[in-house]
Amino acid sequence: xxxxxxxxxxxxxxxxxxxxxxxxxxxxxxxxxxxxxxxxxxxxxxxxxxxxxxxxxxxxxxxxxxxxxxxxxxxxxxxxxxxxxxxxxxxxxxxxxxxxxxxxxxxxxxxxxxxxxxxxxxxxxxxxxxxxxxxxxxxxxxxxxxxxxxxxxxxxxxxxxxxxxxxxxxxxxxxxxxxxxxxxxxxxxxxxxxxxxxxxxxxxxxxxxxxxxxxxxxxxxxxxxxxxxxxxxxxxxxxxxxxxxxxxxxxxxxxxxxxxxxxxxxxxxxxxxxxxxxxxxxxxx
Length: 285
Description:
Order of helices and strands: HEEEHHHEHEHHHHHHHHH
Strand content: 5-15%
CATH superfamily: P-loop containing nucleotide triphosphate hydrolases
Number of strands: 5
CATH topology: Rossmann fold
Organism: Thioclava indica
Structural class: mainly alpha
Number of domains: 1
Largest sheet: 3 strands, parallel
Radius of gyration: 19 Å
CATH class: Alpha Beta
Distance between the termini: 60 Å
InterPro entries: P-loop_NTPase
Number of helices: 14
Mean pLDDT: 93
Protein name: Sulfotransferase domain-containing protein
C-alpha cells in the first residue's frame, strides 16, 4: 500500500505489447542494456525511486538469484541457449513478495522476445547504453580481452539496442551518460518524485553513488589503443552516430585529462596496475 501511495501520480507506462498500464500494476521492470554500461547504478537508482525490489545478488542482477543462476549463467550470451522463463518468473516473484522486481541482467538484451512471451503483460522496460570508449575500457580492464574484440562486441550489442528501439518505441531510451549528468531524467520519464538515495554502486568498481567514470575510463587507454578502437567503430559509423556518439582520435586522451585530471590519473594508475599483474602472470607461466 505504501508503494501505491508513493506512485499515485506516476506517469502511464506501456507493457511489452504497447498497452497502457501504470507502475503500480507492474510486477517486473526490465532494464535492457549491454554489460559494463552502467546497469548496476541505473537499476539501483530506479528501484530506489519506485520502491521496487532489487535483487541483492551479485551486482543486483536477477541472473544471480540462487535458484536460477546455474541456468542463466550457462552460456548467457549464446542466443541458442534456452532458459525456462516460466520457472525464472516463479522464482523472481517469490523473491519480490508482491513488489515490482527490477531486473537488469545484461544478457537479457538478446532474449527480449522470450521474456515478452512470459512477462510481457505485466512488465515494462527501459533501454540504455553507454559511450563505446567507456564500455570498451571497462570490459578490457575487467575481462582482459583485446580492446578491438570488445569494440566489435559493442557494435553487435549496439545494433541490438537499435533493433529494440525500433520494436519497442514506447520503452524509454536513456543513455548512461545522460543519466549520470541528470539522474532525475528517470523521475521525469516515470512521473515519480525525487527521493534521497544512498547507492552503493558496482562491486569492485571503486565508485559509489552516481558519478561519471568517463575520464577514468579514457585514462586507462594508450593512444594506439584509442586509434585501433576508433578504426573498428568506424566500420559501422552509422550505428555509432545513431546512438548519439562520435568517433575520436588520440586527442580524446588530452580532452579527458583536461576535463578531470584526478579521474584521468586514476585511470592511468589502474592501467599501470593492470599491466603489472599481466606481466606477473606471464612470468609465472
